[in-house]
Amino acid sequence: MSKFLSKNYLGLKPYTPGEQPKDIRYIKLNTNESPFPPSKKTISFGKKALKKLNLYSDPEMRYLRDKAQEVFNIDKDEIMFTNGSDEILNFAFACYGDKGVAYPQISYGFYTVFASLYNLDKTEIPLKEDFSIDYKDYLNLNKLIVIANPNAPTGIIMPLWQIEEIVKNNDSVVVIDEAYIDFGGESAISLVKKYKNLIVTQTFSKSRSLAGARLGFGVADKELIKDLNTMRYSTNPYNVNSTTLAMGFGALEDNNYYLNNCKTIIANRDYLTKKLQELGFLVLPSKANFVFAKTDKIGGEELYLKLKSKGVLVRHFTTDSIKEYNRITIGTKKQLDILLNCIKQILGETL
Ligand code: PMP
Q: Looking at the domain assignment, is residue 2 inside a domain?
């Protein structure tokens, strides 16, 4: 760090994204991307938008919000689009964290980073022994609450009635991060009209194959959306570029293509879970596009490194309580069969 860095940021530990090595062509099962490309329609909308890149993108994002209104059954004043859902999470921490923030101890790593960035008082709530979240730990906290549902990296989902209890029993903003909701979960968007303190965030990075385009959004009561827009217009009103806006529109037009891909991912998740269990793995029950698994036969880090040397990338975390696990993104059946063969070879080697 330079001697010029503001003292406010001296201790800031940034988020570490999943590795994107370019030395060989890996089978990438480490960052929960979709293995399927965007639909033809999505790409053709993006291509058309390229011709108008001399103009700024629409800061009000009118076409996309109109389309979203129809698809998500909400009012257009109840939604805001951002540069990935990381950006709306960032805005939520900035807007509502002054009385402190609470989130599960094992969850998306960015929550701790945002809490440090804004110097918030943070409460990290332990998970239950089975890695699920106890909703009772989140009642009457009256500080900003952020919960990934399904949680990451466990993949475990909390039922909607428990989310509702949390929202109902706090006089503070509750953010439900639904990055992985399209892989078998029930969205809390249906609760937005009932509660004025709920923000539901989602992303086009996972189920809609647009991780590289960076498009996320939040749905909330229009007063909350106004706050979040104040933050957006105070940092970058053109936060979503016009190619991405157009591709987001195309993706919503082609919803069925993406829903079908989600069905394939769910079937592949069941397949991988069964095969890993046959090989002696403990696999947590996942409603996401990844599974979190460990085995007594080999340590988590050793398995990760040996898979990497065979050209398959999975995600390993060094936090003590989860270091024996690996998070494996659900790819195509072909990719999963290669992964399973590599695991068989590795286990054969270590037996
Ligand atoms: N929430 C969770 C739980 C995630 O795992 C991710 C992806 N790393 C995000 C939010 C952010 O995704 P994006 O910014 O691509 O929308």
A: no
